[in-house]
Amino acid sequence: MSDTISDGGSRSLIASDRVIGTDVRRPDGERVGRIERLMLDKASGRVAYAVMSFGGFLGLGGGYHTLPWSVLRFVPDFDAYVVDLSEDQLRDAPTRTPEGTDPAEDRDWEERVHRHYNAAPYWGV
Amino acid sequence: MSDTISDGGSRSLIASDRVIGTDVRRPDGERVGRIERLMLDKASGRVAYAVMSFGGFLGLGGGYHTLPWSVLRFVPDFDAYVVDLSEDQLRDAPTRTPEGTDPAEDRDWEERVHRHYNAAPYWGV
Predict the structure, then answer these.
(1) Prediction ipTM score
(2) Among A60, A106, A109, B21, which lies 20 to 30 A Cα-Cα from B102?
(3) pLDDT grade, residue A57 (50/70/90)?
């Protein structure tokens, strides 16, 4: 089954089950992790975050990072999403995920995450 | 694991694995089908379509409908997405999915699907 379509213009679709399970790599090809799920903004229908599992990278234990969707770029040659992030950005990334978060604190958390990755916010866009 | 967060404002997130597998019902609660996958617009990060499997509804055989995301509304009381579509709209829905489609024809297909469901297009929004 083909997972993308293109109309020859700017539109191009990809299936969610093609995104989930895909590797995340650095620009040099080093594997960072794997996409486990997407977080959708219900109001806009926009993908807000990709939750990436990782393990062993940079000597870190296993865990999850919640990455703003806009920092991921699909690179067909790698068959992976590439994140152009420094070691420090990956090492010091906020690992707390929205689960278990006090809802009143979420906006702070979201703003901190987007600042950390220099990502444009998905809200108010 | 909580699957939604809210900041008390207008933002509210939902996990892709909470959407996929969820029932689709009509406003009276009748089950129409189940969401199997999402189709994402790569450029905007927007969910363009939900692919819904169905079987036996209205005497139709099994198959798939590709629904514009904007026609789906989550209703917590049903724990399902509700589509406010007539029997005719469901019976006569374009069943051809983008797979196997001549890419040159996709824009026509997309426009036909959106017209069929009276859905606002996800492109150029």
Answers:
(1) 0.77
(2) B21
(3) low
